[in-house]
Design a protein that fits this description.
This protein is α/β, with parallel strands linked by helices. The protein has helices at about 45-50, 75-90, 105-115, 160-165, 165-170, 200-205, 205-215; strands spanning about 10-15, 20-25, 30-35, 55-60, 100, 120-125, 185-190. A hairpin with a 6-residue loop joins β1 and β2 (about 20-25). It is globular, with a radius of gyration of 16 Å.
Length: about 220
């Protein structure tokens, strides 16, 4: 049985062809937009969003082709950043959001911040991101540190067609530097710094600490 975070409501934005489905918690406080990585869905953020409580207005979005969001012909980062901005603007929250990107969604978080007002960007990647593309899929049972109750949120649903659609998200930019091993969770913000939260799913291993980190960015 899924834990049911308080005051969670589910919504959809867009037409049937570009529909984005998202969960929302709260209407006040700093907006926090939570983005999952490739092959996961918005439910991976339920434990953190519940821990944020009333201090933030949290929004967890299914990327196109994931969860309940419609698949597309174009998964370009810039286009999706624009769609995300329209979605956020329609919520009438009137404050720049904190954008949190898991794994490949770091690209989307950074593209959004480059084009739109953003309070802070928090990104972290699966250590497998530095492996060759053919070796990136982790073992299904490799959920070290994730409490049993939350392991259902850390299950990838692999799809070769979806991987092909998101291929541009998987390539490391030529100018990118290797991510320091001691800082698998990287905080990128105005005046930001690194934060030591390790593991493939630090937000699920310790949802309380992760939520505290996000609240500190307000």
């Amino acid at each position: 049985m899924h834990p049911q975070p308080p005051r969670r409501t589910t919504h959809a934005y867009g037409t049937p062809k570009n529909r984005l489905v998202y969960d929302r918690w709260g209407r006040f406080g700093r907006p926090v937009v939570l983005l999952h990585g490739l092959f996961y869905d918005r439910t991976m953020w339920w434990p953190v969003a519940a821990e944020l409580g009333d201090s933030c207005a949290a929004i967890a979005v299914d990327l196109p082709g994931h969860g309940q969001s419609a698949a597309r012909d174009d998964y370009g980062v810039a286009r999706l950043a624009d769609d995300l901005a329209i979605l956020i603007n329609g919520l009438a929250l009137h404050r720049a959001p904190v954008i949190v990107g898991h794994a490949e969604s770091a690209r989307l978080a950074e593209a959004f911040a480059a084009a739109y007002a953003t309070q802070a960007v928090l990104t972290f990647e699966d250590p497998a991101a530095d492996l060759p593309e053919t070796a990136r899929d982790p073992a299904p049972g490799d959920l070290s540190g994730v409490p049993e109750l939350y392991r259902q949120f850390a299950v990838a649903r692999h799809d070769d067609a979806l991987r092909d659609g998101y291929r541009s998200w998987l390539a490391r930019p030529a100018h990118s530097e290797p991510r320091p091993e001691a800082l698998p969770l990287q905080l990128s913000a105005q005046g930001g710094a690194g934060a030591r939260l390790g593991g493939r799913f630090p937000h699920l291993c310790d949802a309380t600490s992760f939520a505290a980190l996000v609240r500190a960015l307000r």
